[in-house]
Design brief:
Layout: E1 3-7, E2 10-12, E3 18-25, E4 33-39, E5 46-51, E6 57-59, E7 68-73, E8 78-83, E9 92-99, E10 115-116, E11 120-124
Parallel strand pairs: 2-11
Antiparallel strand pairs: 1-3, 3-8, 4-5, 4-9, 5-6, 7-8, 9-10, 9-11
Length: about 130
Amino acid sequence: QLQLVESGGGLVQPGGSLRLSCAGSGFSLDYYSVGWFRQAPGKEREVLQCIGVGGHALNYADSVKGRFTISRDNAKNTVYLQMNDLKPDGTAVYLCAADRGLGLGCSSDGRTYDYWGQGTQVTVSS
């Protein structure tokens, strides 16, 4: 069964850091662009960042620019989202998604992605 599994979420104080992981299960992420999204209660899903097959990363959210970093480790079949200086408005379910049809590129449109993880909860609170 092909699936994405997120992990690394939890409760963190404002200003703290977390590293989220998105692992491919049953397939290799080597040929997939992977995006990170988040959805806060009562809000629409928001695209954050994406990393292409060749490792080129794109940031789509000004609110996280300079604080979040996406990376991939093909040997571990995993994509990461390093989140620093977290703020209370970062409280959300964070999801990763994979798309094989983008080549070296990325997409901010969630509808293009083939596989989605179940999400991991991040709560930023003192």
